């Protein structure tokens, strides 16, 4: 695929490192900003805020603890950024190593960027904690597995029960979207 055929991304994509940048640029035509790890400096946060104001920002970090830490730091400093998520499967290395955007295929990256979520920091929850409990997402023998599969289906990343509630609220996932996802997940169990 040549440069002219690649999907163009207006926003700046925030990634963790230079290998992530290389992989992103294999998949799409986009500018990136590298955090260089989870110890994000105030200067980097200021840059992200400036870029958010001028072009918009997409946070695209690894689906691991450090990636989630970076995502949280950026979200708190610059509310309203967009988010792209890879599944752990899509970010897994072909050999030994840790999960990372740098291991994702160009197709997986494009798919993640096609399903962005924009934060609604002050949004009212559309789904209650009770709804999540009734759906078996916060307790029970399959809760963890259901959350993992829900995160993959909705492309919002893996969460624990508490994080799931916050993420569904933050991204304003509707009850209908949750219902559709759960039907899909539970139908998978029948195969």
Model description:
- With 191 residues, this protein is α/β, with parallel strands linked by helices.
- It folds into two domains: 3-118, Dna Topoisomerase Vi A Subunit, Chain: A, domain 2 (3-Layer(aba) Sandwich); 129-188, no CATH class.
- The protein contains eight helices and seven strands.
- It has a five-stranded mixed sheet, sandwiched between helices. It has a two-stranded parallel ribbon with strand order 1-3.
- β5, α3 (65-77) and β6 form a beta-alpha-beta unit.
- α1 crosses α4 (106-114) and α6 crosses α8.
- It is globular.
- The protein starts with 6 loop residues before the first strand and ends with a helix.
- 35% of the residues are buried.
- The model has no long low-confidence stretch (mean pLDDT 92).
- This is Ribonuclease M5 1.
- Required for correct processing of both the 5' and 3' ends of 5S rRNA precursor. Cleaves both sides of a double-stranded region yielding mature 5S rRNA in one step.
Describe the structure in brief:
This protein has 191 residues and is α/β, with parallel strands linked by helices. The chain has 2 domains: 3-118, Dna Topoisomerase Vi A Subunit, Chain: A, domain 2 (3-Layer(aba) Sandwich); 129-188, no CATH class. Helices cover 46% and strands 9% of the residues.
Share of helix, binned: 40-55%
Shape: globular
Total strands: the figure is 7
Strand order of the largest sheet: 4-2-5-6-7
Mean pLDDT: 92
CATH architecture of the largest domain: 3-Layer(aba) Sandwich
Class inferred from helices and paired strands: alpha/beta
CATH topology of the largest domain: Dna Topoisomerase Vi A Subunit, Chain: A, domain 2
What count of domains describes the coordinates? 2
Q: Termini, distance in Å?
A: 37 Å
Proportion of beta-strand residues: 5-15%
